[in-house]
């Protein structure tokens, strides 16, 4: 039996046309947000997500360089407008923070002040950066006066400027400016909702605000131990361990040193007495 085989031969042009059609089938449209995501990654645009905190829901803005803003959650449109005015960058809502930033924010909100967290402080002065960085060293449950930060950063006369810088802190709570109080022991102002919110946060962290108020009323700004002969800020973890019979009150460091006490190496109360 004879079998006849017929083969259709395609020209080079036909083969090229077929290849183009096959490649065309591999094309896909890029997601609409890919351009914005790339801008966020390099810090030319920001994104923000909602995060729960001890004082309620927050808007937390960020880009690939770190956090850029923390504020109480409110009207999204108003937040986006204010953020754009402050930073010069647009900001878009997203479902959640990147994993690394989320862990850092959660750790800071839980009181772990040494937890690593990337912060985008572009456009800020060296003075502001130094003030904010020093504030992050204050442990949860403790407070320091404005003068302490001024002395620690080598600008002991810049107490008012320290207060102004803290008032302009763009990422409160994660940079804990709420742990800085006035030199007379009073709470002072707070950019994230005012003194009432500041008191609420400090109470959540374990600060005995009634005791602080009582000490301030009597002019007591330092507490010494008559057994160790060390003097601390009242909220220092070492001061809180001093039992009542061994607590010695002092108005300032000069009085304590005059009585033979030396300053605590942890809370370092050397700046006390410089009114904030």
The named CATH superfamily of the largest domain = Winged helix-like DNA-binding domain superfamily/Winged helix DNA-binding domain
Coarse structural class? alpha/beta
Mean pLDDT: 89
Note the overall shape. Answer: elongated
CATH class of the largest domain: Mainly Alpha
How many helices? The count is 11
Binned strand content: 15-25%
Name the strands of the widest sheet in spatial order.
3-2-1-4
Q: Do you know the CATH architecture of the largest domain?
A: Orthogonal Bundle
Q: Could you say what the CATH topology of the largest domain is called?
A: Arc Repressor Mutant, subunit A
Q: Give the % helix.
A: 25-40%
Major beta sheet, specifics?
A: 4 strands, mixed
What sequence of helices (H) and strands (E) makes up the elements? HHEEEHEHHEHHEHHEEHEHE
List keywords for this structure.
276 residues, alpha/beta, Double Stranded RNA Binding Domain, Arc Repressor Mutant, subunit A, DNA Methylphosphotriester Repair Domain, 3 domains, 4-stranded mixed β-sheet, 36% helix
